[in-house]
Amino acid sequence: xxxxxxxxxxxxxxxxxxxxxxxxxxxxxxxxxxxxxxxxxxxxxxxxxxxxxxxxxxxxxxxxxxxxxxxxxxxxxxxxxxxxxxxxxxxxxxxxxxxxxxxxxxxxxxxxxxxxxxxxxxxxxxxxxxxxxxxxxxxxxxxxxxxxxxxxxxxxxxxxxxxx
Length: 164
Description:
By secondary structure, the chain is mainly β.
């Protein structure tokens, strides 16, 4: 019986620690299909909290051991409320040279918190749209991969700056 009480107490304590993320402003994930098709765009609608303070932006990727590449190429488009649009092609390292996947996690699923932009001020009021798709291709090939295996979820996160 004491073991059960200790397990419940440990679980509640861990939940409290994880939920105490004071820097988080927006954090959302979307699940992708078994294989992320090159035409499948992951969309996020963002209503920033203000138009004065700067924020750091992150793309979060959850992947399994079936992800077989050392890097990840993404095309990220941010559409502003009044029509402006910014498109970036980004590359992220996803594995060590030994093939061991980077990221955090004790199971076969690894979570990667990847920098997108820092010190961003959302100057326009209204809803911002963020679109993310992969742009992976095999070395020496012009055509991109139709389907990218191993990515399970794509997320977007906005954090307050840590002013220490």
